[in-house]
Amino acid sequence: MEKKLEQLLNSAKLEIEGVQTTKELEDIRLKFLKKNGPLAEILGSLSQLPVELRPTVGKIANQVKIEILELLEVKKSELEKVNESKKLNDWDPTRPGRKLPLGHRHPLTQVLDHIYEIFKNFGFHRSDGPEIESDYYNFLALNFSIDHPARDAHDTFYVSDDLLMRTHTSPIQIRVMQSAQPPFKIIAPGRVYRHEAIDATHHHVFHQVEGFLVDEGVHFGHLKGILDVFVKEFFGQDVETRFRPSFFPFTEPSAEVDISCIFCGGNGCKICKNTGWVEMMGCGMIHPVVLKNCKIDTEKWSGFAFGMGVERIAMFKYRIDDIRMFYQNDLRFLHQF
Ligand code: PHE
Fold it and tell me: Is the pTM value of this prediction over 0.85?
């Protein structure tokens, strides 16, 4: 009986050593240790032995079982290690690649880049300014009188007595004109803040693009020409512009630029309230007071400025009827651009 056990252990050892796969190892485990296998058989026949031999042989049989289990365990972890390194060596550069999901620019960024691209081709350079501004740059230097309604707390987020979240990108005009000498040809995009209740067409954070040009002999005709070409480049050659008198403290004269409604082609619809026109941006000749605040000689230099809302333009371009869509990051919306 003891001999039989020894043989059993040896043949298990031999077979386990030769194993190549975990499947083979499992087969060997079953072969030796299953319920009606050789070891179970020996343990089952202990009762036929003389009583005094039973404990010794039983003990040996148990040891054999434990040893086989250990051998199986060692072999198993060996095989796992081999499998790991095999996986690494399996790298096949000729296999087709896995396609990764590709991100893309936010629709507002796309519109901003498009606007920027058009003005870059006109020879404009890009400038930026801080989103937290002083009262001086946002209002005072732009010829807003101390009691101008636009300073009202209902419109402006104040950070401290003197600091605020800029309400428009026009302070960049002052920063640029105070830091260099004319001529200037600047396009300046940025985020702006207004104390507004949020609804389908208003948000307290939105984006503007400021543009301005200062040179010798610049007049309103230049402004009209450049904005008309811009609108046609951006929306299409058949879109018309018209200039309506308006008011801004930092431009004189000031105008509002309307474009022929791109929804109905100017025939009249719900969007343009049957007028055939929609408002696109504010503009005007830079006020002499503003130029003087920047120590620019108004006898020699003159300039124009304009400012447009990026969300508004994007909504027209893509026919989006709710400004909130831009900030919700709903992929079903973003994937469409
Ligand atoms: N800053 C103005 C606004 O936010 C727009 C504007 C810019 C008007 C430049 C005229 C010239 O409403």
Answer: no
